[in-house]
Write a structure and sequence with these properties.
The structure is a single chain. Helix 8 runs parallel beside helix 10 (340-346), helix 13 (402-413) crosses helix 15 and helix 16 (467-482) packs across helix 21. It contains 23 helices and 26 strands. The chain folds into 3 domains: 34-100 and 459-629, 3-Layer(aba) Sandwich (Pyruvate Kinase, Chain: A, domain 1); 105-169 and 276-452, Alpha-Beta Barrel (TIM Barrel); 184-271, PK beta-barrel domain-like (M1 Pyruvate Kinase, Domain 3). The two termini are 46 Å apart. The protein is of the alpha/beta class. It is elongated. The protein binds adenosine-5'-triphosphate, pyruvic acid, potassium ion and magnesium ion.
Length: 631
């Protein structure tokens, strides 16, 4: 076995990000001095006094924004600690350079195995971007304590771990197993009773409580009853009042609160589920809890239509005027697939919840559903999480199966925003090792595909609904195209020195938009063709108050990381779910020149960037795009 490639299999392997004290290597790209002509700038400025907005493109071609007297840089000197980023990101940047940062984000479900402060910290060190709490389990007090610990971790150590609250939903599931039992095993041929009666704990032998009153009425003798989408299977043999007697036909482990589905003549019986509300009364109480705790994301289980998402969003908006809780639609039912596009458009993101999805559609259809959801989310600019069973075997074993590694690779190759651990981190024996596998495989596959330049191009439809938004969108598309490596413009002479060419030009905005649309700014002004091959942009910097422009850049999946600067901690946390974004919190003004000087100063002081690094900077305040070397 190749020990290097599979270093995560080595129990003594420790992630590179953990050796925070090791001396930082110089940034990869700073080692080879660039021959690109320094600093050129294009900035556009919407003239708000004009009824038909005009855009000014300007640049001085002689040192661009750094040609001044350096007062902005001097002003920044006063505040070295004025930027918020976590130690892990900082160490990763210093050690591996820009290009090798991980683009795929990682979500960990928190449960009994990981709810302590130290365990949470170990996950943050291991690369957790989002902590998920599942309201199917535990009490609100338990979840509150987890939220408090994550918040403390963020405050004390500078992390931006976001919190995602996942609702229980009102699908049919088993109750707890009673007493101290955390699981029970059903053997082939055993007769178990599924009942809606209330029992005292412990439950009678081979008895399972069902949460849904209509259960005994709805099932028929001869139906197949599937626990967790088929992990255990029973056949209904007799109905006696509230009790349903079933014979085990596929043995396996019964876990508390596992999902139940029943099948008749080879198809899922869904009439009753269709009548249950997506958000139950208990879910509404949990949502109130989430709003008052200020969670970053609320994930809604078993979404059937866009309507429920719109309803929840207006509920959240009315309850918390200044909060920006994002709503994630969990795609895990037949109905959610039917109404997929409408649901994604109404949501702030989606989750491919393969656990329940695989119980509702034939398993062999799950991979194509996953690919479709991931693609659609990217096209519509919504973050997407691939969830469930990525490393299921690691609940019990310290190493993954080869098939699990291949499954992770596929999700990374599809360039999903995030991968999620469920039982592996909530109650498994090796939560940190599982996270290390996710991280190592993500990094390796991302690097492999960048080197091979084999990413398929994806058509990104225009999604903006307003004029201002469409300028932002075009700017982001153009910035991403300028990043060498995506193949579109290599060999086409990517332009530097735009400032000289465009100095003093004042163009109406539609003209600029047209130019951007045809990538005129990028490819039609060839200054020195031989420079083109050298234009390897190290990072895109985006200054964004709402996060929207960072999201638009992430959507393009450019070849370099995106440093997203934003003024609020909540936007910073939210951006932590999205592909390729390295979110920082920074106070900034509308003056891009001083913002850039300040950022360069702060990041250089911390060794995160170096003079000569090539950066494209965009901003949603000025809707500008600038190309420059770090001075
Ligand atoms: N807060 C918790 N307390 C106790 N156990 C938990 C908790 N959260 C998760 N678990 C355990 O981890 C397992 C997997 O958790 P997870 O939340 O991912 O379930 P899931 O079935 O994939 O999600 P969903 O219920 O949303 O479909 C659960 O079956 C449960 O045993
Ligand atoms: C995550 C989840 O809800 C599922 O896979 O079913
Ligand atoms: K759930
Ligand atoms: Mg589910």
């Amino acid at each position: 076995m190749a020990s290097q490639a599979l270093h995560f299999l080595n129990p003594t392997y420790s992630a590179p990000t953990r050796s925070l004290s090791s001396p930082s290597k110089p940034l990869l790209l700073a080692q080879s001095p660039r021959r690109v002509r320094p600093i050129s700038a294009i900035s556009s400025d919407i003239d708000s006094s004009s009824s038909s907005p005009s855009v000014m493109i300007s640049g001085n071609g002689k040192g661009g924004i750094f040609g001044g007297d350096g007062t902005a840089a001097a002003a920044a000197v006063a505040d070295v600690s004025g930027i918020e980023v976590d130690a892990v990101t900082e160490a990763e940047l210093k050690e591996n350079g820009f290009r090798s940062t991980r683009r795929t984000k990682l979500v960990c479900t928190i449960g009994p195995a990981t709810c302590g402060f130290e365990q949470l910290e170990a996950l943050a060190v291991g690369g957790m971007n989002v902590a998920r709490i599942n309201m199917c389990h535990g009490t609100r007090d338990w979840h509150r304590r987890v939220i408090e610990r994550v918040r403390r971790l963020n405050e004390e150590k500078g992390y931006a771990v976001a919190i995602m609250m996942d609702t229980e939903g009102s699908e049919i599931h088993m109750g707890d197993l009673g007493g101290a039992a955390s699981a029970a095993r059903a053997e082939d041929g055993e007769i178990w009773t599924f009942s809606v009666r209330a029992f005292d704990s412990p439950l009678p032998e081979q008895t399972i409580n069902v949460n849904y009153e209509g259960f005994a009425e709805d099932v028929k003798v001869g139906d197949d009853l599937l626990v967790d989408g088929g992990m255990v299977r029973f056949e209904v043999i007799e109905k006696i009042g509230p009790d349903v007697k079933c014979r085990c036909t596929d043995p396996g482990l019964l876990l508390p609160r596992a999902n139940l589905t029943f099948w008749r003549d080879g198809s899922l019986v869904r009439e009753r589920n269709a009548m249950l509300p997506t958000i139950s009364s208990k879910d509404w109480l949990d949502i109130d809890f989430g709003i008052s705790e200020g969670v970053d994301f609320i994930a809604i289980s078993f979404v059937k239509s866009a309507e429920v998402i719109r309803h929840l969003k207006s509920y959240i908006a009315a309850r918390s005027r200044d909060s920006d809780i994002a709503v994630i639609a969990k795609i895990e039912s037949v109905d959610s697939l039917k109404n997929l596009e409408e649901i994604i458009r109404a949501s702030d993101g989606a989750m491919v919840a393969r656990g329940d999805l695989g119980a509702q559609i034939p398993l062999e259809q799950v991979p194509s559903a996953q690919q479709k959801i991931v693609q659609l989310c990217r096209q519509l600019d919504r973050p997407v999480i691939v969830a469930s069973q990525l490393l299921e075997s690691m609940i019990e074993y310290p190493t993954p199966t080869r098939a699990e590694v291949a499954d992770i690779s596929e999700a990374v190759r599809q360039r999903a925003d995030a991968l999620m651990l469920s039982g592996e981190s909530a109650m498994g024996q090796y939560p940190e090792k599982a996270l290390t596998v996710l991280r190592s495989v993500s990094l390796r596959i991302e690097k492999w595909w960048r080197e091979e330049k084999r990413q398929e191009a994806m058509v990104l439809p225009e999604i903006s609904s307003s004029f201002a938004d469409s300028i932002s969108e075009e700017i982001c598309n153009s910035a991403a195209k300028m990043v060498a490596g995506n193949g579109k413009h290599s060999g086409n002479g990517v332009t530097m020195g735009l400032g000289t060419t465009l100095c003093g030009l004042r163009l109406c905005s539609t003209h600029v938009l047209e130019c951007l649309r045809s990538s005129w700014l990028v490819s039609s002004i060839v200054i020195e063709a031989h420079l083109a091959d050298n234009l390897e942009v190290d990072a895109i910097f985006v200054y964004t108050k709402t996060g929207q422009m960072a999201s638009l850049l992430s959507r393009c999946r450019p070849d370099c990381p995106i440093f997203a600067f934003t003024t609020t901690t909540s936007v910073r946390r939210r951006l932590n779910l999205q592909w390729g974004l390295i979110p920082f919190r920074l106070n900034f003004s509308d003056d891009m020149e001083s913002n850039l000087n300040r950022t360069f100063f702060l990041l250089k002081a911390r060794g995160m960037i170096q003079s000569g690094d090539l950066v494209i900077a965009v901003s949603d305040m000025l809707q500008s795009i600038q190309v420059m070397n770090v001075p």
